[in-house]
Each structure stands twice: as C-alpha cells, then as structure tokens.
Write a structure and sequence with these properties.
Residues 264-306 are annotated as: Disordered. By secondary structure, the chain is of the alpha/beta class. It has helices at 41-48, 68-74, 93-99, 116-126, 139-156, 171-183, 201-215, 227-233, 251-255, 258-265, 284-293; strands at 3-12, 15-25, 30-34, 56-61, 86-87, 101-103, 189-193, 219-223, 236-241, 244-249.
C-alpha cells in the first residue's frame, strides 16, 4: 500500500468538508477523484499534502524502493527505522513533498517572470531539502539540477520553450509545465488538481497524453471534471459526495453505480444520454474551503506543532 487514510475528517466550523474517509492507493495506480462541486475533493488533496490539518483521522505513506531511507530522513522520519511507513498526518507541506508526494494546483502556480527552465530547476533544487539552498556548494550540484530540469522539459514536450518567459506560454503549456514542476525530484506519488481545467479542446489531448506517460512510472491521483478523460485514463475512480466516499472502483463499476448517477454523473454513460453536466470550471466551494484554510497553513517558518 502506497497511501492510506483512516477516518480522515476535516471540519470548518459547523461544516464537515471531508467526513471519515477510508481510502487506500496501491503503488502504480492512476486514481481519479470525482464528485460534484463542494464535495471536498480539493480539501482531501490539501489534507494529503499538509496544507490543512485534519480534524480527525490518520494518513500513512509508504514510499517504495531504495530511496526510503533518504526520503524518511528528509521528511523528518528518521532513516534508522526498519518500518518504512510514514505517518504524515501532522506533516507540513514541505515534509510531505520531501517524503515523495508532489502536487499541482487548480490555479496555475508558477513563477511567471522566470523562464520555463528556471521554474523546473528551482523545483529540482527545492526537492533536495534545506541543504540545497546553502551558499557554499559545489557548482556541479547546480549542474545536476539543470540536467534534471532539461530531462523533464524534454519529457513534457517543452524543451524548445526552455528559455521562454513562463507568462508567455499558452494555458495548456502552463498546465504541462506545472506537471513538469511536480515531477522534479522524481516523486513517488503525483497529485494533479484539475489538470485540464481551462485548456482548449485541442490542448486537452496533449495534457492527457502527458498524464498517461507520467502514470507509466509514477502513482497518480487526479481531480478532474472531464468525464471522458476520467473514464479513458483511470485505473480506478473514487467518488466524493458531501465529504463522504460513496463509491470506489473500476471506471465501469462507478459509471453504473446508482448513487453516483444520482449524486454526480447525471446519466453519463447511460444509453441515449449526454456526458455529465459537471461544471468544468472546478470546485467553487472547494476554493472557498481553501480560502478558509489560509489561517491553518503551516509554513515552516511558523514552527507550530500539532
């Protein structure tokens, strides 16, 4: 098991945004998280990545491979433990990132005045932990960051735009670049929050092809409203409704689930019906929850324990 939540809950005053969610992700899976606006999808991602503190429940992460010890040390888990499972319930955003969970956001989150290459290079440097920012370092270390950034740009199809100022990219190219930034440091789990939102119909195919390529050697979770994309690329689909997990399984099983049809799909996949009437602009209610979360963000400078 790569990632597991147990009774994961988040309350904002009298509102329960995520309600007792038990969820598990296997290594190598591509799982889509779907549900109506305000279902708690982005809040769920924010809990997994340390942006929000859970009200109740646990989050465990078990990074695979030979990098376990290094990731545990970077994330504060201690490299001497024989148990590779990390309890990241109380981890900060930087600790979850160093443990091997990287993400993109609903709203483009790039340095607009830096070049495309520099955006990925900065992310590659940050993925090495606090020591990566020391002034007295071997210049070869920075060459390694640039080499990694260059490899990523080749993979995401933006190598020819390496020196382009990021704000001059198309929206679809910015979405691809966000995935490239999230790939820096070779995470074990990649969380993508509405990767096709706002992308033109012509650009969606490019973003989908990139996600499929990335999923070939990374575990991926994504929030997505485009049901054609979800049904086409997902190994598995989990459905949130009013903060609760109401369905979880292969696409065909979820498509035919009556509770899912009633709560969200609105007849998607039924004979003679059109695609679901989900709002492709994203979760307005989830964005309100994110705003409420600003007071709960744990910047490392704050040092607040939980």
């Amino acid at each position: 098991m790569l990632l597991e939540t147990e009774g994961l809950t988040k309350r904002f005053g009298g509102i329960t945004a995520v309600d007792g969610v038990d969820f598990a992700l296997e290594t190598g899976e591509l799982c889509s998280i779907i549900g109506p606006n305000g279902a708690g999808k982005t809040t769920f991602f924010n809990l997994l990545t340390g942006v929000l503190e859970p009200s109740d429940g646990r989050i465990r992460f078990d990074p695979p491979g030979e990098g376990d010890g290094e990731r545990r040390a970077l994330a504060g888990g201690g490299s001497g433990s024989t148990d590779s499972v990390l309890d990241i319930t109380a981890a900060s955003p930087d600790e979850t990132a160093l443990a091997g969970i990287h993400r993109s956001y609903q709203i483009t989150n790039l340095f607009p005045t830096l070049s495309v290459l520099e955006n990925v290079r900065v992310a590659a440097q940050a993925s090495r932990g606090n020591d990566s920012w020391k002034l007295w370092r071997n210049v070869a270390d920075f060459e390694d960051h640039y080499a990694e950034a260059t490899r990523i740009l080749e993979r995401i199809g933006l190598a020819e735009e390496a020196e382009t100022v990021t704000e001059n990219l198309s929206h679809g190219e910015k979405r691809s670049l966000e995935i490239g930034v999230a790939l820096a440091g070779d995470p074990d789990l990649l969380l993508l929050d509405e990767p096709t939102a706002g992308v033109s119909s012509e650009g969606v195919d490019d973003v989908v092809a990139l996600i499929e390529d990335v999923a070939a050697d990374h575990s991926v979770m994504l929030i997505e409203h485009n049901m054609e994309v979800v049904m086409d690329i997902s190994d598995r689909i989990a459905v949130l409704h009013r903060g609760e997990l109401i369905a979880d399984g292969p696409p065909e099983d979820v498509r035919g689930d009556e509770a899912v049809q009633e709560a969200y799909l609105g007849g998607y996949g039924r004979e003679g019906s059109e695609a679901a009437g989900a709002d492709s602009e994203g979760d307005a209610a989830d964005r309100d929850e994110d705003a409420a979360a600003d007071g709960g963000r744990r910047a490392s400078a704050g040092g607040e324990s939980r």
